[in-house]
Structure formats: C-alpha cells, structure tokens
Design a protein that fits this description.
The protein is of the alpha+beta class. It folds into two domains: 105 residues, no CATH class; 374 residues, Cytochrome P450 (Cytochrome p450). The chain is 57% helix and 7% strand. It contains 22 helices and nine strands. Strands 1-2-7-4 form a four-stranded mixed sheet. Strands 3-9-8 form a three-stranded antiparallel sheet. Helix 8 runs antiparallel to helix 13, helix 13 packs across helix 17 and helix 13 crosses helix 20. The longest helix has 31 residues. It is globular. The protein starts with a helix and ends with a helix. The C terminus is likely disordered.
C-alpha cells in the first residue's frame, strides 16, 4: 500500500476519533462505542432491557440521549435516540407538541402489512378520522354492556370449568396462556361478533388465532433489523418475512369472509352490537378499512389485558395482605347485593354495578400496571427541531423513546416506596374512593390525544376476571417456576405463569366480615 494511502487512512481515523469524542461527550447515559454506538450495551442487557433502561434513567435524572450508530451524518439525527420518563417531557411529547411527535415512518412501515392504516398505525388526518369515529362508540353504555356479556360468558363457561378441574385434581395451569386465550375470545367477540373459542375444553388450536399470533411475532421481528434488511428479506420471501406473508394472507381471508357475511346480515335486518357492525352502520367503508379497524382493536385489546392480569395474579399471590383486602372488599360488596350466603355469591356472574363497586381491586390492578405496564416502552418520531421542558434538544429526524416501565419506578415521582406493590396509593384517605393519578405520571394507558379509548372496558374485563377467580380459588406459583420478563413490545412472562390451583375457603373472610361493618372493611384498606 502506497504511503499516500496510509496517510489518508490515518487522517480519516484521527478525524473520526475527534468527531466521535465530541459526539460521546455530548451524550448522557449508557456508553457509546465507535461505529457501533450503543448497540453493544443493548445486546449485553437484552434479557433485562427494561430494568437497564430504568437504571440509566435514574442516573440521568429521567432523560438521556444515545445513538444507535456512531456514523457521521447519521448519529445526530436518524441514529439519535432520546430516552425519557420525566412527566414534564411526556406531557410535552404526548400532548403539548403532539403534532411534532407522530409514530413516524419507521413504525408505520413495520406494522403496515398487518395493520395497514388502522388507528394504531396511522398519523394526522387518517388517525384523527378513525379516532373520532371510534370515540363515539366507546362512550356508549351499550358497548360496555356488550363487553360485560362476553366477559361473563367466557369466565363462567370456559375459564372456571378449567380451573375447577385443576383444583379438583390438585393440578396446575399456565395462567398466562389461559388469560391470553380468554381475552382473545373476548376481543374478537367485541370487535366483530365471532367467538374463535380458543379457551374451549381441551384448549384447541384455532387457525385464525395461530395466524394472528404468527403475524404479530413476525412483525415484531422487524424491529430487530435495520429496515433495508427486512425489506430485502421481504422481496426474497425469506425467513420470518415469508411467515408474515402467509399469516397475513390467512388473517385477510378470514376477516374478509366475516365482513361479507356481516354486510349481508345487516342488509337483511339482523342486529349486531360489535364494533365492526357499528362502523358499518356509521357509513360506507371499504372492506380493507373495516378489516384494519377490527385488527387494530384485536391487537390493542388482547395482549394488554391478559399480560396485566398475569402480573396481577402473580403479585397478589405473593402479597397475602393485598389478597385479603381484595377478598374483604368482594365480601362487602356481594353481601350487600346478594346477602350472606356465599353460594349466592358464586351462582352467577358479577353484575355491572357490583364490578363498578370494587374500588380496592381497581387500585390493585392500577398498581400492577404501574410496576408492570403491558407496553413497557413506546417511541415517537421528531418532525422538527425541539427542546424538551428539561432542556434536552431533540433534532428533526431523531426519535424519542418514552419508558412507561421506568415512569412507574422513579423515586422522584412515586416516592421511596416506588418499587413496593401498594394499592393504597391509589385510594382516598378514607379508602372509599379510587383517585386517578396524573396521566403523565401513570402512562400505562398512554396519555394526551392518543390516550386509550378502551381504558374503561379494560378495567371492566380485568376486574370481572380477577374477582371471579379470587372468589373461588387460591393461586400459588408452582415451586421452581421462574417468573421472568420476556423482552418484547408487550411485557409477557418469558416462561408463562405456572400456578397451582386450590379451592377457596371463604369462611375466614365471612368471619371477618361479620366482625366489621362494610364501611370498616373498606376503610381497612388504608391501614
């Protein structure tokens, strides 16, 4: 190699290292390596990603910046990621400057094959139109009662018999799997009025459910690779991209048949109260649009509730004090509405009004979501240069990741006991009222214009399931079973949730109920 070539190479290396030192000096947070950026740290902590991000945020007062690739021309824009859990920044991104922080082109490209331009994968006018249409439906009492009917049906005809069999044989179940099946059946019923029966006896495999799961998993794989890599694999129909294409084709075929059948039923005078039918009655939409409406709500309503319930049952099983308070509240509510005979408590599903009165249970579910949010991290694209309230400059073309998982684990926000499971923090001083937290401190249901439309429906479903199960059974993690987080866009348990199921003896709760008035029982939640 000629001397001139060596000189050029040395000059380039020196110039790069000078540039890199300036770049690294301006970044806070995890170490940034030449060329590789923060990738080595991400790989090293892949199995504990959310806790690693939370540790970094604690050390940087709630916000840090890093770059995925330390390459001149890319690092300060396309490669720059601002990570934050500061409530001031969250309010700025999710509300005050909402239009400057859309989901962006990367997110849209990743999910487009599965979700198209549906409400959870669109921005601007496309999103706004669907949001307004859906908002009108989610505020109706009839939709809440429809959800209540689907949930009660699946609990008492599907879930309870399976748990009863396990209790009778002193056996165990994978509760996470059962809950995923239950919420999938419920959300399909609510979204387009058909029950896939994945929680039927024997836990059968369902072709539509399997295709939907495969499509979701393959879509999430796209986040692992640079966009040009998965696009090449898509063109060549290789690996997970081939799986995605097959799965999406199956989902499209299934929903297309559902939509055609529903249009015929509605035209003949049949009445349906599912979301798909409600959209059809509102106007004339293409089949593709209606299909994406259904898919978007299935994706949003299935995994989120089931994952939250899995962490809830695990937390309650390891916190006897909280479990006792939930049971006391249930006993108080049901003794008022059904009398003191516990057989009457179990004879029929909880009524809408009974579920609504479970204040402490809602607090325990909210506390679960604070510590284990179903969607632990989310990100936004930066349209124009901006400065966050804490002084952090974010350039156009970069991205902002807001850590929902970290937001619930900051002492500066939640106090020194932020890592404790303490539902009482959600109650009024007398313990009788649920007191919502500021939505930019508690971001489990998102916040600002994109706050979850189905929040009330989610609480209704989770409270109904939790109450029905805890009234009847004692649950305990099978000895030796490891409860660990799965690194995914949704906070699944990596190995499922294997739990022993035993029948519940309500006599101790009844004895305590007889010693105290209902007011004292509810008030005991705060002691």
């Amino acid at each position: 190699m000629e001397l001139g070539t060596w000189v050029v190479m040395v000059v380039c290396v020196v110039a790069y290292m000078v540039w890199f030192r300036r770049l690294a000096k301006g970044l806070r947070g995890p170490r940034v390596w030449p060329l590789l950026g923060s990738l080595p740290g991400l790989i090293q902590h892949a199995e504990s990603m959310h806790d690693w991000i939370a540790d970094n945020l604690r050390g940087t007062r709630g916000t840090y910046q890093t770059c995925i690739c330390a390459i001149p021309g890319l690092a300060r824009r396309a490669g720059l990621v601002t990570v934050t859990c500061d409530p001031r920044n969250l309010e700025h991104v999710l509300k005050a400057r909402f239009d400057n922080y859309p989901k962006g082109p990367t997110w849209h490209a990743v999910f487009h094959d599965l979700l198209g331009d549906g409400i959870f994968n669109s921005d601007s006018d496309t999103w706004l139109f669907q949001r307004k249409t859906a908002a009108l439906e989610f505020t109706t009492r009839t939709l809440r009662h429809a959800m209540s009917r689907w949930v009660s049906r699946s609990i008492h005809l599907r879930l309870i018999p399976i748990l009863s069999d396990a209790a009778e044989s002193s056996g165990s179940v994978d509760l996470q799997d059962l809950l995923l099946r239950l919420t999938f059946d419920n959300i399909c019923g609510l979204a387009f009025g058909k029950d896939p029966e994945t929680l039927a006896p024997g836990l059968p495999e369902n072709a539509f459910a399997m295709a939907f799961d495969s499509a979701t998993e393959a879509t999430l794989q796209r986040f692992i690779f640079p966009e040009f890599v998965w696009r090449i694999k898509k063109c060549l129909n290789l690996g997970m991209e081939a799986t995605l294409a097959r799965s999406v084709a199956h989902v499209d075929h299934y929903l297309s048949a559902v939509i055609k059948a529903r249009k015929l039923e509605l035209s003949s005078g049949s009445d349906h109260d599912d979301l798909l039918s409600r959209f059809m009655k509102k106007g004339t939409y293409t089949d593709d649009f209606l299909q994406h409406v259904a898919l978007n709500f299935i994706l949003a309503g299935r995994d989120t509730s089931s994952v939250a319930l899995s962490w809830f049952f695990w937390l309650v099983s390891t916190n006897p004090r909280v479990e006792r308070q939930i049971l006391l509240e249930l006993a108080s509510v049901l003794s008022t509405s059904r009398g003191a005979d516990t057989a009457a408590w179990l004879a029929s599903p909880l009524a809408f009004e009974e579920v609504d009165g479970l204040v402490y249970l809602k607090a325990a579910l909210s506390e679960t979501l604070r510590l284990y949010p179903s969607v632990p991290e989310d990100s936004k694209h930066v349209v124009a240069d901006d400065v966050l309230p804490d002084g952090t400059f974010v350039p156009a073309g970069s991205s902002v990741t807001y850590s929902i998982y970290s937001a619930g684990r900051m002492k500066s926000v939640w106090g020194d006991d932020c890592l404790e499971f303490r539902p009482e923090r959600w109650l009024s001083p007398d313990g009788k009222r649920f007191e919502p937290q500021d939505s930019f401190r508690f971001v489990a249901f998102n916040a600002g214009p994109r706050i979850c439309l189905g929040k009330d429906l989610a609480y209704l479903q989770m409270k109904s399931i939790a109450a029905a199960v805890l009234l009847r059974y004692r649950l305990a993690v099978v000895p030796g079973h490891r409860v660990e987080q799965k690194m995914s866009l949704t906070l699944f348990m990596k190995h499922g949730l294997r739990m022993n199921v035993r029948d519940r003896d309500l006599s101790p709760i009844m004895e305590e109920l007889q010693k105290n008035s209902p007011a004292v029982i509810v008030g005991a939640a705060t002691t």
